[in-house]
Design goal:
By secondary structure, the chain is α+β, with helices and mostly antiparallel strands. It is built from 3 helices and 6 strands; from the N terminus they run ααββαββββ. The chain is globular.
């Protein structure tokens, strides 16, 4: 399975040392929606990502990628320290050029 470069960076960045690499995959106006909250801009997104990695110590394994309504949809098996692990989650990415403009994470 081939993922666009910014999405590949999202799934392969190692926390916390590669937080800047992850943040660089997001456009300046990017927004992430996860667990009922929104995180805007690369700095806020990096802080959210580091906090989630520290809390859940999770890893996401992309299993399927499709396109829907101009978005790249990735189904991934997420395992870590949370109830119900592992879980199948859907990551819906908006892209512009070589940057992620929006990401919605859901069940």
């Amino acid at each position: 399975m081939t993922l666009p470069a910014p999405i590949e960076a999202y799934f392969t960045a190692e926390a916390p040392q590669e937080g800047a690499r992850l943040a660089a995959a997001f456009a300046p106006e990017a927004i992430v929606h996860d667990e009922g909250k929104s995180h805007r801009g690369p700095a806020e997104i990096e802080a959210w990502w580091k906090a989630a990695k520290a809390k859940y110590r999770h890893r996401a394994e992309p299993l399927e990628v499709t396109e829907a309504r101009g978005k790249t949809v990735v189904r991934a098996r997420v395992s870590g320290h949370f109830p119900g692990s592992p879980a199948m989650l859907t990551f819906t990415f908006g892209l512009s050029g070589d940057r992620i403009t929006d990401l919605r994470i859901g069940g």
